[in-house]
Design a protein that fits this description.
Elements (H helix, E strand, L loop, with lengths): L8 H7 L26 H8 L14 H14 L3 E5 L2 H9 L8 E5 L4 H8 L8 E5 L4 H7 L4 E7 L1 E2 L4 E2 L2 H10 L4 E4 L4 H4 L9 E5 L13 E5 L12 H4 L10 H5 L3 H14 L5 H11 L2 H20 L4 E5 L9 H7 L7 E6 L2 H11 L4 E2 L9 E3 L11 H6 L6 E5 L5 H16 L1
Parallel strand pairs: 2-3, 2-4, 4-7, 7-8, 12-13
Antiparallel strand pairs: 1-9, 5-6, 8-9, 10-11, 11-14, 13-14
Bound molecules: pyridoxal-5'-phosphate.
């Protein structure tokens, strides 16, 4: 189908990027389980390698099943192109890679997925990159943190582990003034609840492992490009604006215009970093995306009910869900995230660390796992697991103190989930 702007989200989540298989007419997107593709002749091969013709060479770079997913996510996010890769963490490296070099830094929100905090505060140092963490509600602090070596601002839309939503527009304006892109991790919101590009984001990254796949089967990541950033407006992004030595001097921005970042991501990023998504993973994620809007509606409806029930319960200290009227971010949600605040939140259990551990052990429907965005409800005690590597200050800043558990509310019956929490809270406070 042609992806006209007239199609609604529910239509696009099923059809965008897909067409009946030209060879067989297969209606569902086939899993192209192949490593290589036969060139028509030597000239065809040369044109492909020169990026003069778009086509398939080798599955580290491109694969038809993965390509459908790329086009689908790009369409749902309102971007011009996307690159899929092997995990959400791979997507973050792949998003930063064309922008950064030794000595460059990224200004990042303090409220990020624990694994991202570790990746940014520790591992990227090995590349000579640095992350500066700031409270993104304090725009003056963001401005102050940006220096001549800053190449991006990075935040999450609905932040993990929960309770916080970002004012993307204000942050995008700050990044714009500094001549650098805003990268938004939209994993927890999904394009159904938030489309960061409409709020001024340049790049959107996803862990497709979570809601986009929606069933806890495969890891994957995606980077969507808005196509709106002028990479040649200043001299900060030579990989895109200047001759790229890694691709025999090709000037990506001049040659590919709004698709420069996407082409760079495939021709250099996937070619040389090799963090490729495999076609099986793309297949599972394509299956999941077909029902994204239906699942997100139920996720939000259940989260809203359960957060309200927990907030009213004596055994619970507080609930940080931006969908509750008590949240300081409630107005921001209504304005920027009108379909809801997602299904990920934290609550504090009276009795602290020990009660949290007992609660997690006593639950029967909720699974104790280090994952989120599954159809089934999940719980984790962040301080003893995902946020264990962080200092106590970083844990508090991330909203993951020792008395706090994070839940990812699934699409089961809300009443069953409430009954499960009720029995487990009794055991936890006994
Ligand atoms: C899970 C997650 C990641 C990392 O994704 P992986 O697929 O596990 O590598 C990054 N950001 C957010 C918000 C996540 O939830």
């Amino acid at each position: 189908m042609s992806d006209g702007p007239t199609y609604g989200f529910d239509t696009l989540q099923i059809h965008a990027g897909a067409r009946p298989d030209p060879a067989t007419g297969a209606r569902q997107t086939p899993i192209y389980q192949t490593t290589a593709y036969v060139f028509r002749d030597a000239e065809h091969a040369a044109a492909l390698f020169n990026l003069q013709e778009v086509g398939y060479i080798y599955s580290r770079l491109t694969n038809p099943t993965v390509a459908v997913l790329q086009e689908r996510v790009a369409t749902l996010e309102g971007g011009v192109g996307a690159v899929c890769c092997s995990s959400g963490h791979a997507a973050q490296i792949m998003a930063l890679f064309p922008l950064m070099g030794p000595g460059c830094n990224v200004v990042a929100s303090t409220r990020l997925y624990g694994g991202t905090v570790t990746q940014f505060s520790q591992t990227i140092k090995r590349f000579g990159w640095e992350a500066k963490f700031v409270d993104t509600d304090d725009l003056d602090a963001v401005k102050a943190a940006i220096d001549e070596n800053t190449r991006a601002v990075f935040c999450e839309s609905i932040a993990n582990p929960g309770g916080y939503v970002t004012d993307i527009r204000s942050l995008a304006d700050v990044a714009d003034d500094a001549g650098i892109p805003l990268i938004v991790d939209n994993t927890s919101a999904t394009p159904y609840l938030c489309r960061p590009i409409e709020h001024g984001a340049t790049l959107v990254v996803h862990s497709t492992t979570k809601y986009l796949t929606g069933n806890g089967t495969v890891t994957g990541g995606c980077i969507v490009d808005s196509g709106k950033f002028d990479w040649s407006a200043n001299d900060k992004f030579p990989s895109l604006s200047e001759p790229e030595t890694a691709y025999h001097g090709l000037k990506f921005h001049e040659t590919f215009g709004p698709l420069a970042f996407t082409f760079h991501g495939i021709a250099i990023g996937l070619r040389d970093l090799g963090m490729t998504m495999n076609p099986q993973a793309a297949h599972y994620t394509l299956m999941g995306i077909e029902t994204l809007s239906l699942r997100m509606e139920r996720h939000v409806e259940n989260a809203q009910k359960i957060a309200a029930w927990l907030e009213a319960d004596d055994r619970v200290d507080y609930v940080t869900y931006a969908g509750l009227p008590s949240s300081p971010y409630h107005d921001r949600v209504k304005k920027n995230y009108p379909k809801g605040a997602g299904a990920l939140f934290t609550f504090a259990v009276k009795g602290g660390y020990d009660s949290c551990v007992k609660l997690v052990n006593a639950l029967e429907i909720f699974s104790h796992v280090a994952n989120l965005g599954d159809a089934r409800s999940l719980i984790i005690h962040s301080a003893s697991t995902t946020h264990r590597q962080l200092s106590p200050e970083q844990q508090e800043a991330a909203g993951a103190g020792p008395n706090v558990v994070r839940v990812s509310i699934g699409i089961e019956d809300a009443d069953d989930l409430i009954a499960d929490l009720d029995q487990a809270l009794s055991k936890a406070s006994a």
